[in-house]
Specification:
2 domains, single chain, 264 residues, 5 helices
């Protein structure tokens, strides 16, 4: 039997995993020797359902990988170590510990990364991003015994994060710069309907609010969110104990020319 070409998939999120399962279902292992690299310490999981971890679900409940999938020959999964460099001329990828993977075809399925706006105080104790199961675990641990949470970003997953804080018993506020929630997906009427629904769940919604800074106490912990004059409906600050940032940027290109890193 002729040797198989090496297919390297960088990223084992929902999209990367869907690609792999589709290839396997279509008989792709007859042609490809497939290696999948995931930066997180666990296989692909349903990131949309992260908020269920706040209310008692376990990471295993969110797992998307069918039992036995990666037991197949010519299909392997490497987790807990990112790829840090790509050489499109040599057709290699270097992992953070120095291991080098060869590929004939390369797929980048790295998704997005949380973006923390360059606000004063953004590194204070009590500030979090919301993307991984580890993020949720850190938020849960810190939020215990605290009262008020603020989520900066009123998109779909930002609202999920707000629902998670609310399930922890926190007085929860969503702060959105745009004039409505989910501004990319919804028009004004849709945004108004969504706002009524979210507020009906006990979450406070503030739109058209321009965050200026995270105010911290003498111990370096979150004390409040500060806002530009005239842009917040309850004054120029919101006292809170926990801040979750929820803006997204595409994952950065670490090295190499992505345009040239195509398979044969």
């Amino acid at each position: 039997m002729p040797s198989r070409d090496a297919l390297l998939v960088i990223g084992h999120g929902m999209v990367g995993h869907r690609l792999v399962t589709s290839l396997v279902e279509a008989g792709g292992l007859d042609r490809w020797d497939i290696t999948v690299v995931g930066e997180e310490p666990r296989p692909a999981y349903d990131r949309i359902a992260l908020s269920s971890l706040f209310s008692g679900a376990s990471p295993a409940d969110l797992c998307l990988v069918e039992q036995g999938l990666f037991d197949q020959a010519d299909l392997r999964l490497l987790t807990g170590e990112p790829v840090v460099a790509i050489d499109p001329d040599a057709r290699t990828a270097t992992m953070s510990a120095g291991h080098i993977l060869r590929w004939d075809a390369l797929v980048l399925a790295t998704g997005s990364v949380p973006f923390v706006p360059p606000l004063p105080g953004r590194d204070a104790t009590g500030c979090f991003v919301y993307r991984t199961t580890e993020d949720v675990e850190a938020i849960r641990a810190y939020a215990a015994g605290r009262q008020v949470g603020g989520v900066i970003g009123g998109g779909l997953l930002g609202l999920e994060a707000a629902g998670g804080l609310r399930s922890l018993g926190m007085d929860t506020h969503v702060v959105e710069f745009a004039p409505r929630l989910m501004p990319v997906q919804l028009d004004a009427d849709g945004g108004a309907v969504l706002r009524r629904h979210i507020e009906g769940l006990g979450v406070h919604v503030h739109t058209g609010a321009r965050t200026a800074a995270v105010d911290v106490d003498e111990a370096g912990r979150v004390r409040a969110l500060k806002f530009e004059d005239g842009t917040f409906d309850i004054g120029d600050e919101l006292a809170c104990d926990v801040v979750v940032f929820f803006r997204w940027h595409p994952a950065p290109r670490r090295s190499g020319s992505i345009g040239r890193a195509r398979g044969r």
